[in-house]
Amino acid sequence: MNALERLRVVEVGGEIAAPYATKLLADLGADVVKVEPPTGDPLRSWTPFPDTAGRPGLLFRYLNGGKRSCAVDLDTDAGAAWLRATLTGADILVESLGAGCLEALGVDLNPPPDRRSALAVVRLAPYGQTGPYVGRPTSGLVLQALGGWVSSHGVPGIDPVQVGARLHEYAAGTYAAAAALTALRAARHTQTTTVVDLSVVECLVGTLAYPNLVLEDMLNAGLTPPQARHFPLPGIVRCRDGWVGINALTGQHFIDACTMFELDEFGPRQAELAEGGALLDEFYARLEPWLQARDAAEIVELSQAFRVPAAPVGDGRMMLDYAQFRERPFFVTDEDLTLPGPPYRLSATPARRPGPAPALGQRGTAPRPRPGSPAVASPRSANGALPFSGLRVVDLGTFWAGPYCTMYLGALGAEVIKVESVRRPDGFRFSGANPAMGADWYERSGVFAGTNLNKRDVTLDLTTEPGRALLRQLIQRADIVLENFSARVVEHFELGYDQARAINPNVIMVRMPGFGLVGPWRDYVGWAMVIEQATGMASVTGPPERPMHPGGPADPIIGMHAAVAVQAALEHRAHHGEGQLIEVAQLETGANLTAELVVEWSAQQHALPRAGNRDPHAAPQGVYPCLPGVLGPEWVALTVAGDDQWAPFASVVADAGWPHDRDLRTAAGRRVRHDELDDVIGAWTRRHRVDDVVAQLTAEGIPAARVLTVPRMFEDPQLTARGYYVELDHARTGRRRYPGWPMRFSFSPAQHRTGAPTMGQHNDEILAELGVSGPDRARLAREGIIGDRLPDA
Questions:
Q1: How would you classify the pairing of strands 337-339 and 332-334?
Q2: pLDDT digits (tens, 9 = 90+) for 671-700
Q3: To the nearest whole percent, how much of the chain has pLDDT over 70?
Q4: Which of 331, 405, 547, 753 has the least CB density, counted as fewest CB within 10 Å?
Q5: Angstrom distance (rounded) from CA 540 to CA 514
Q6: Contact, 435 vs 761, CB < 8 A?
Q7: 449 with 756: CB under 8 angstroms?
Q8: Is 334 exposed, middle or buried (0-12, 13-18, 19+ CB in 10 A)?
Q9: Residue 485: what pLDDT?
Q10: Three-class secondary structure of residue 736 per DSSP
Q11: Alpha-helical segments (H) within 356-496
């Protein structure tokens, strides 16, 4: 049985983002028709190794398994008419043709009442459908620069570098898949077309760890800004046989790591070390002999024994050998290709690869008829309400990935109850916050606040039977229960899926352990950077001489995968009245985002290179320094995306020899001489203001943009024009601007509904709803089972 077997999906666009969105739907059972131009999706001929004997189309095969292909020329009247007719039989359209292209094809996004149907339309575009940047030439590097992904990645002094392996496109595709199911839910309420305007740049900004809020927090506490601090420590380091990442997220992690290193004297000095300088140099110098005496596997095993998050810096070859992947098992085969399995596991409606990728024009020309009637929304919701109105969610999540998913549900109508304990609060309360902020410093973390909007908060001590009894009452009333601890934590409290189902047979439980509920890595601890290391994201990020952390975007991207799986489970429950367990093993989800590393290695033993800011096809491409601005160093990201752009680029840079140099007229020739080109381009950009460089290049149709840094993010013209940031109130920090969602739903302008709660803020009202009397609530507070502050505060 497939959760989405009744859905008919049309995909128009190609490359990665739209196909990854529909891949997620196809793996869950949707019938996906892929509309391609007569020449095919460009990924059919893509290889990351254009200068070698690389096999094209391997990534295409991963992204398009089980779909049906239609070769249609949408530039003709007949092709446009075919698309319009096809959409009358579809539930979802995912398109990435560019801003305004659907209107040019005559697709009516606001049909009259007599022609309305429940259609969800997701429109993926680099900058969305509106705003001053729409229509500007762009590239992956330029989008990353404007989305805050081009940075020094926690190593001050390193030139800004992009995130590798086109991860930003997978991020956008994940948001698109979640938005598609949400929009369909809204469309069914009203039996009208629901449109989603999704901006890739906003997806990227939305996966940053709230840098504007962290900057405000640290400056208010009198600390140096985060971009000037080293994080995490020690981070990615060389060991005897390669690279390993040891990531102390908290002060306790770092103290434990220093005990493991036999460098206890550095344990209390994490904040001081983060400032850099001689002390940090001494720390690394004294750590090096310890690292060089050990292999990565030994270091990871020892770190995990100390409960310090650590993982090898993996690549395609290493991932195929992970014991965790072998013993679960995880990978699937497609003839001569090894591929990642689905990014989550659903107990009642398993996700599965539905078949091989189609040949161009293979397997039919229109969606199959829908089997049965569409699902209905929760009976507790009302017409005109937000899509998740009436749903009750118990959020046991901590840090980022799990709470990010529930924040999305809450923004769109769900009642989300966040469960913490005063003795074990969400660890994100201590991230970006500092005791220098005052006695209630743990209430002032912008990182915590940015991840926990749209929720109410109750504190329950789950080490006590009364605390667990109250949680059982919450579960009895819930539609969804979510947690993202390591596997053993919830089971220690006897609150796994079997127990939850015994309390509430129809509950949907989402478990998001770092490495899975079973397997030899089951009890490993991890967070975003650990997943980014283990799944190869770090191996393809950074200059050739060293891997670097992408910076944490894996967590929110994984959270949005959970949002896709939850909505699929809701669809199944609406038809069959059955809840289920959803296991989102973050290691497996991350491996879906770096699938190209695995498919290239499995097919031809090619490891994807770490190439800094360069591109395997476009040249030159890079990030170059400009004249400093009032806020410090300025950098420009630029791409000569095709041979037709070379002559105008050469004329702007004004190197007299370039226009006449035959070797530079092709991308292959320019790639050979990239170092030489970089020297000349850098000398030119250093003489100009970044705004002038961007203006000159974009006027010639060449993708270019300022590398957006933290202080400028609140004032970016595109984000401002689209109202991306949302101002909300908080009981302790007052009104602040928070990142919104990267999609605009036609049914509502809502981005978020309420600010984040303080610890135990809603104890009285939530427990009263459970029937707990005032005197009993007072007794629970005296006994420390509930509370609204840390025990020693």
A1: antiparallel
A2: 999 999 999 999 999 999 999 999 999 999
A3: 97
A4: 753
A5: 21
A6: no
A7: yes
A8: middle
A9: 87
A10: strand
A11: 401-411, 446-451, 465-476, 487-492
